[in-house]
Amino acid sequence: MQTVLSKSLSEVINERHSVRKYDSTYKISQDEIKEILKEATKAPSSSNLQPWRFIVIQDQDVKKELRAIANNQEQVETASAVIAVLGDKEMYKNVEKIYRGAHEAGFMDEANMQRLIESTNRTYPYAPEEIRKNIASFDAGLISMQLMLIAKDRGYDTVPMGGFNKEQFIQKFDVPDRLFPIVLISLGKAAEPAFNTTRLPLEDVLIDYI
């Protein structure tokens, strides 16, 4: 198992870059990938409904097929794993399990639990699907970034990929109707350094102080 490195958050953020060339011989264990995912699920989410789901692809033949779906991006096949992040359009169906779990853990009393369950059931089921998909996509972005930083802290490299045929992905992996694919994240050991990039000056993106 990979030794968890001790770095500051600032160091991890500054060292993380999108890597597209991977050591295809390096394998990450399923147990460690599960640890990374479990830690990543500490990310915030709207109403704590946690509308993220994952498919982890490590089988080499399946990765080869996925590469064709993902516009022939090399890293899909050569990384140790590809983590597909999906959104759940019907995230509200887990509301009772989520809030009852919080109640049983002692984080809220029963009255507050019931209030939150009822509030969720009055709103989310009746929201347009587009809005629910936007919520799930936003939360998927939060957990994806957290996942990539956790991976970097463990000495691994990643790159997020939005460029893939989502309909073909749904068919290939028999994705249920309530779920939809959002991003693929390669995970492995870099074979070559990532390209350096620049960012716009802060004054170009900071609109104002008020």
UniProtKB/TrEMBL annotation:
Q: Which SUPFAM superfamilies match?
A: FMN-dependent nitroreductase-like (SSF55469)
Q: Which Gene3D superfamilies match?
A: NADH Oxidase
> Where in this chain does the record put each Nitroreductase domain?
13-189
The question of whether Disulfide bond is a record keyword is answered with no
Q: What is its EC number?
A: 1.-.-.-
Give a yes or no for keyword Nucleotide-binding in this entry.
Answer: no
> What Gene Ontology molecular-function terms does this entry list?
oxidoreductase activity
Show the InterPro entries listed in the entry.
Nitroreductase (IPR029479), Nitroreductase-like (IPR000415)
Keywords from the named record: Oxidoreductase
Q: What does the similarity note say?
A: Belongs to the nitroreductase family.
Protein name per Swiss-Prot or TrEMBL: NAD(P)H nitroreductase YodC
Q: In which organism is this protein found?
A: Neobacillus rhizosphaerae
